[in-house]
Amino acid sequence: PMDWINEKAKTLRQGAIRAMFDKASTMDNVISMGIGEPDMATPELVCRAGNEALEKGITHYTPNAGTPALRRAIAEKSNLKGVGYDPTTEIIITNGGMGALSLLFLVLLNPGDEALIPAPAFLSYGSCVHMASGVPVFVPTEQAKGFQPEPDVLERHITPKTKLILINSPQNPTGTVYPRETLQGIADLAIRHDLIVVSDEINEKIIFDGEEHISIASLPGMRERTVVLNGFSKAYAMTGSRIGYAAGPERLIAPIYCAHQYSAMCPCTYAQWGAVAALRGPQGHIADMVKELDRRRLMLLDRLAAMPGVSFVRPKGAFYIMVSIPGLGTPMQAAEFLLDAGLAIVPWDEEHLRISYANSYENLSIAMDRMEKALRGRF
Ligand code: PMP
User: Fold this and answer.
1) Rounded to whole angstroms, how far apart are CA atoms 85 and 78?
2) pLDDT tens digits for 2-18?
3) What is the distance between the terminal CA atoms of the chain, rounded to a whole angstrom?
4) Which of 21, 42, 98 to mutate to test the pocket of ligand 1 (most atoms within 8 A of CB)?
5) Of 49, 216, 280, 376, whose CA is between 20 and 30 Å from 133?
6) Tens digit of pLDDT for each residue in 237-273?
7) Strands 243-247 and 91-95
8) Would you say residue 1 has pLDDT above 70?
9) Is 5 exposed, middle or buried (0-12, 13-18, 19+ CB in 10 A)?
């Protein structure tokens, strides 16, 4: 019977990414530019540390907040060290950044509370807010302005129900890196309207063109009202290990400990030991990964610039490029046209498609040849 499923769940849909990939998987010789995870392998020393933990029999539950060694490593070694979080009361380890995100909304949002989300945004944000009985309020950003959120536009969307602003820099899907002025504008807004800021910094290490990642938690007056989300999926290519974390003031983090106790309990124990090794070990592989991603990014930017009908913004971080090809119709129609040409790109919103460059340089080159040929045939 239909009403076995509650009203909230009935509105959830599989994302466009899944649908696209289900279709692409039935076709031969399609190059995927849709994946949202680094194609690199998890660094060997991380795997070794996870294995060692298993061999030592470290296979039981950890505290709901995660293993103290990992919380200490995050407090001491991550970019948050400057903000100075107490590893015993202000950091929680979760099942990926997604675990932190969903628990956070569960403990923060009353039914009907609104979360402001600059859009285009990571697809999970709206659904996570919705599952927690909140209301996602997408605040548009403009391609012509590099998809930078504008504090005065955000402010116009604030209502008495607004509880938080969810930001993401470097951003998925646009590659936008928020400069200090943007962050300061958002901080001023949050302080003026007494809002919480949730800052998803999972792409902090994947940054180009000499840009600098700044955590909004480090701006004056923001530590007490910010929750930083981060994880090991991107910088350490550990998507399958499912280790993420949230850091913030105790009054925002403590309720998550309980929510964790009554949901997942704790993240995978031995993967947490892999994460300790990731933070405490040499960091050279991050630079190697970013260098390779940058090589692909620059190639794609050159190739796209030479194609008719395509517009885009030069991304400064993450590993995506948002493109607009209005001459092909809707983004869904454009994606289908490109799929027929042999490349899979995700239709993101009403205007854009997202290219991910988590694929080899060689494959991406072939994909660009196919795209250019198809577009030249059309325009
Ligand atoms: N935030 C953003 C912006 C992401 O792109 C992703 C992964 N695609 C996540 C959070 C979640 O990552 P994970 O749960 O693997 O840590």
Assistant:
1) 10
2) 689 988 888 888 776 77
3) 50
4) 98
5) 216
6) 999 999 999 999 999 999 999 999 999 999 999 999 9
7) antiparallel
8) no
9) exposed
Cα 35 from Cα 54, distance rounded (Å): 30
Residues 6+ away with beta carbon under 8 Å from 230: 78, 80, 97, 200, 201, 202, 204, 244, 245, 247
Ligand 1 binding pocket mutation candidate from 35, 78, 127, 233 (most atoms within 8 A of CB): 233
User: Atom 12 (ligand 1): residue with closest C-alpha?
Assistant: 97
CA 16-20-22 angle, 5° bins: 115
How big is the chain by its Cα radius of gyration, in Å?
21
Q: Give CA–CA dist 117/198, Å, rounded.
A: 10
Query: What are the tokens at 49?
Result: 């540390």
Tokens 């947490």 correspond to what residue?
Answer: 272
**Report field, pTM of the whole predicted structure over 0.90:** yes
State what percent of residues in the chain have pLDDT above 70.
Answer: 99
| Half-sphere exposure (Cβ direction) of 242: Cα atoms closer than 13 Å | 10
Where do we find the tokens 């995100």? 101
Q: Is 87 in the pocket of ligand 1 (CB under 6 A)?
A: no
Pocket test for ligand 1, best of 102, 124, 129 (most atoms within 8 A of CB): 124
Given a contact cutoff of 8 angstroms between Cβ atoms, the answer to whether 188 and 151 are in contact is: yes
Residue 322: Cβ within 10 Å count: 23
